[in-house]
Write a structure and sequence with these properties.
- The chain has 393 residues and is mainly α.
- It folds into two domains: 175 residues, MFS general substrate transporter like domains (Growth Hormone, Chain: A, Up-down Bundle), CATH 1.20.1250; 203 residues, MFS general substrate transporter like domains (Growth Hormone, Chain: A), CATH 1.20.1250.20.
- Helix content is 84%, strand content 0%.
- The protein contains 18 helices and no strands.
- Helix 3 runs parallel beside helix 5 and helix 3 packs antiparallel against helix 17.
- The longest helix is centred in the last third of the chain and has 36 residues.
- The protein is globular.
- It is a multi-pass membrane protein.
- It is found in: Cell membrane.
- GO terms for molecular function: cytidine transmembrane transporter activity; uridine transmembrane transporter activity.
- Keywords: Cell membrane, Membrane, Transmembrane, Transmembrane helix, Transport.
Length: 393
């Protein structure tokens, strides 16, 4: 490995660390800021936080088209990183809830380009130069986990407004790092019409998407409501950060060693197990356990998210015909991290106002177990397909 090649890999790792450090120290504590400092209701918080995922789904293909048209992916990446960090500071200047909604949409529009563009640039680099993309992206998980604890401690000692300055500073430093990334031409648009026509012939795909909506939507919505749950149980802002550190920090080890489990038990079995862990976790939180038990159970996120992500993604890739795999993966991401996230974040906020945070987590648990039922159905269809294929042979 040349000195330049080694420097580029370190630069990629630093880029991912900084961008996820910014995200990790900001978004998990943003709902706490809205409730404690601004005085928003649960419904207002849910609406505000649910807007981003929908906007990101709509604007992400547009950034891909811009990268493809201009052939300046690196410049687009740097622009969106700088603008995302800068727009985050805008919340400190606003008092009107309507303008906060506008700002949330703008921030999400720029943020939507960061991860797909940087992932594409990194993937092109490792395919050309060799190496493991996962070793570069792993620093993102480390940055996210560390930021939740660091910014939680700072917010407790200083003020919750510190999260906005930490967010902006991290992303501005990230943009400087991005100047040294290799120049690559990337695009991440997809043929939606052709892909849907092919995927509609696969009932298992539609059912798996529905299960992903029900299982992964609450996982993402938990990032909004975990801080409110923790404070409702008597925890501190610093405690929220520590809880996120334990939860996010547990994902990387399980994700790293998910391969042997998948090979031994199969993709759908691992996905089912991960979904069950999530469901039991949400139901447990709805029973209002002690802070100590919340800390102990946060590591279950590694078993759920750390296993669900690689197993589900691989199942979608294997299920879809090769010519529409990109569309299938994009739809999977849009349904789980986009629409599912938005739906449960929005509904969870209104249930918070109506019946309290424990009812919000009861909703998450019931929805997840419904998703488990759909995964069982998909698994049975898969087993019947294999049996029919064997009988023909």
């Amino acid at each position: 490995m040349t000195k330049q090649n080694r420097f580029t890999r370190v630069n990629f790792s630093l880029f991912f660390y900084l961008v996820f450090f910014g995200f990790g120290g900001f978004f998990p504590l943003l709902s706490v800021y809205f409730k404690n400092e601004v005085g928003l209701t649960g419904g207002q918080i849910g609406t505000l936080m649910s807007l981003g995922p929908v906007v990101m789904v709509l604007t992400q293909p547009l950034w891909g088209m811009l990268c493809d048209y201009t052939r300046r992916s690196n410049e687009v990446l740097i622009l969106t990183v700088v603008m995302t960090g800068t727009l985050g500071l805008g919340y400190l200047l606003l008092e009107s809830y309507a303008w906060m909604l506008v700002l949330a949409a703008l921030l999400a529009a720029f943020q939507s380009a960061i991860i797909p563009t940087s992932d594409s640039i990194a993937m092109k680099f490792v395919r050309r130069e060799g190496g493991d993309y996962g070793n570069l992206r792993l620093w993102g998980a480390i940055g996210f986990a560390g930021a939740t604890w660091v910014m939680g401690e700072l917010a407790e000692r200083l003020d919750l407004t510190v999260i906005f300055f930490g967010f902006a500073l991290s992303l501005w430093l990230c943009a400087l790092t991005g100047l040294k990334l290799p120049k690559e031409e990337v695009a991440f648009d997809f043929d939606l019409r052709r892909g849907l026509a092919r995927l509609a012939r696969l009932p298992r795909f539609g059912m798996f998407l529905a299960a992903t909506f029900l299982v992964f939507g609450p996982v993402h919505a938990n990032n909004v409501y975990f801080g409110l749950l923790f404070q409702d149980l008597g925890g501190t802002v610093a405690g929220v950060g520590l809880g996120f550190l334990l939860a996010a920090g547990s994902e990387a080890p399980f994700m790293r060693f998910s391969g042997p489990w998948i090979r031994k038990w199969g993709l759908l079995s691992v996905t089912l197990f991960a979904a069950l862990v999530s469901g039991f976790r949400w139901i447990f939180y709805s029973l209002e356990p002690s802070i100590a038990w919340v800390y102990l159970t946060t590591v279950s996120q590694g078993l759920s998210v750390g296993l669900f992500i690689p197993a589900a993604l691989q199942y979608v890739r294997d299920l879809a015909p090769s010519e529409v795999q990109t569309t299938a993966i994009a739809l999977y991401a849009a349904v789980g991290t986009g629409l599912g996230n938005s739906f449960f974040t929005l509904l969870g906020g209104y249930i918070l106002d109506w019946a309290g945070i424990s009812a919000t987590y009861l909703l998450f648990g019931l929805a997840t177990f419904t998703g488990v039922g759909m995964l069982v159905w998909v698994k049975r269809l898969e087993e019947r397909r294999v049996e029919n294929a064997e009988s023909v042979v």
